[in-house]
Structures are given as structure tokens and as C-alpha cells.
Amino acid sequence: MSSLFGLDQSSRLVFVSEVPRGLACQCRCVVCDEPLIARQGAVREHHFAHASGREPCDASHESLLHRYAKQVIQDAGGLVVPMNDHVGAILGMAPAHSPAARLPLPRVEVEKGLAEVRPDLLGHTDLGVAVAIEVAYSSFCDMLKIETFARMGLPILEIDLRSFTPEDFKPEAVKAAVLEAVVGKEWLWPRPEDAPAATPSTPPPARLPEEIVTISGRWVSIKQFDSGDIAVKVIRYDPDVVSLVKSIAKANFASYSAKWRSWNVPRWRAENVRAALREKAATVSIFLKDRT
Fold first, then answer.
1. Mean of all residue pLDDT scores within the chain
2. Residues 236, 122 share a domain
3. Does residue 190 contact residue 207 with C-beta atoms inside 8 Å?
4. Same domain, 66 and 184
5. Domain membership of residue 29 as a residue range
């Protein structure tokens, strides 16, 4: 119900117990935007009421819980997730020494539309690897959606919050479940059973060598990570080439690394970016290096 949640002065979603009582809460209704009063008496359950005295607006607890959980992850810049060696390899993280690890997500996009799906959250690690996060309350990801994420090579984490009903909603407990707990979180892809079988006769696939494309006389480097994602960087600054690379990268869901001055492109869009840059290039060169 909307009477449990309001919007503060910054239009952030807040639970009624998180704000000062009365009009001092300075909150607005999530549905009609009317000023709210935070009722926090000792007899009735805490709730928001319209300052005008009108009846509470009707809003879905599930949609508000989704919004609250997504906001918590954005604010924290990451969360603790279940971990194993296969998931760690996909994410470009060190081998798992614990069943859980904190996944840093310095950039998080809400309801980002991809080619075939729209995850609740699309997080980007500090290595530029994209991760889809789904918040579940009454509906959970079906096999068709999971297969779509798997086909895209996009890791998907589902967080089960069905226990946080309107009658049993405590903000600190929700934050702990979303950010710190492992119970209730599951990687829908990749799963441990998705890991390729390691055999002496089947070596792991090698990274592609660095590729240099020349556009308007400027070198553009394309390097591949072990995860399959690629980093695209203009070697010597040229505003027109930088603008071109930026437009191609952003059209393919890339994130910018200020530290390395490169665009990190997710693996499922890597070939699209390579093809687009090659199309604009005057020459293409492959640089072979000893990677041992």
C-alpha cells in the first residue's frame, strides 16, 4: 500500500519509519504527489496519511518494494553475491575462496532496455562487465527469460524478497537482505553446471590478440578481457574520432573507464563494435603478443 511509502524532498522512496513524524517528514504521495503526514503513534501501525485528509492512494506493494530494493543497490554501489569459480571467471574476478563475495557496481542503470529483455537493474563492475539483477516478490524469472540472458552471455542474479510483506516490512532487514545476505540470492545464469568441462585435451579458449584500427589517421585499440568483454581506446586524442568511438560504444551498452580512458563493451556486443569500427577504418592491424 502507498500509505507505507512516500517520496522525500529529493524524490527518493522512503518507508514511514525512516522519516520524522508529522508534517516534518516533508514527504509526498508516490501516486498523487500530495503532501503527506507521517503517523507514528503508539496505538496504530505507522503509516502515511494525506495532509488533506483524503483516502490513501492505491499502489502495489510489489512495485514499491522493487523500487525500494533497486534504490538500495544503487546507493550502495554493489552487493554481496553467491560466488563460485565459474561465476568469478565470467565476472573477471579472482578465483572464489569463499561462497560469497562483494560485487562492486560503480554504475547501475534502472530498467535498462536491452535488445530482447529489460532487467530490473543493469549493473556494471569496475572492469566494465555488465550484470543483470532481478528483484522477485510474487513473480520470478521463467526459463524463456533465463535462456535469453544466457544467449546474450549476460550474468543474471535473482533476489527473492517474498518474505517482506506489508505486514512484515522492516527497512533495515530489507537492506541487509539485499546488500549483505547470500540466502535468497541465486545466479540464474551462469550456474555451476554451465561451466565447460576441463579436460587435458581441451585448453581454455585464448583471448583474441589486440586489434588496431586506423580511423582518420588515428589508432583505435581493441583489447579483449578474459571475460570476453572488450576495451576500446583512442590512442591519440582526436575530437572527431573520440566522438565516433563514443557513439558506437554507447549504442552497444558500453561503460566508460575514466582511469583507463577506454570504453568497456559487454561480450554480447563485442563483435558489433568490432564490425562498426572496422567499417569506419582505413586499415586494420592485428598485434600478436606473448601472453605467458
1. 88
2. no
3. no
4. yes
5. 2-59
Interacting residues of 2 by C-beta distance below 8 A, sequence separation 6+: 29, 30, 31, 48, 56, 57, 58, 59, 64
Residue 71: closest CA among 5, 138, 145: 5
Q: What pLDDT is attached to residue 129? A: 85
CB distance 71 to 13 below 8 Å:
yes
pLDDT tens-digit map of 32-59: 999 999 999 876 788 999 999 999 899 8
- The last residue of a domain, from among 169, 194, 219: 194
User: Which are the contacts of 129, defined by CB distance < 8 A and separation ≥ 6?
Assistant: 90, 91, 92, 155, 225, 227, 229, 264, 266
DSSP 217: T
Cell of 41: 503513534
φ, ψ of residue 220 to 5 degrees: the values are -125, 120
E-assigned strand segments in the chain: 5-7, 13-15, 22-28, 35-39, 47-50, 78-82, 100-104, 107-110, 121-124, 130-136, 156-160, 185-189, 210-215, 218-224, 230-234, 255-257, 262-265, 283-287
Residue 214 lies in a domain: yes
Task: Please check whether residues 248 and 234 belong to one and the same domain.
Answer: yes
CA distance 78 to 128: 13
258 and 148 fall within a common domain = no
Task: Tell me the C-alpha distance between 155 and 249, whole Å.
Answer: 20
- Give Cα 107 to chain centroid, integer Å: 7
DSSP class of residue 18 equals G
- The cell numbers describing 12, all together, are 527518493
Q: Are 260 and 231 in contact (CB under 8 A)?
A: yes
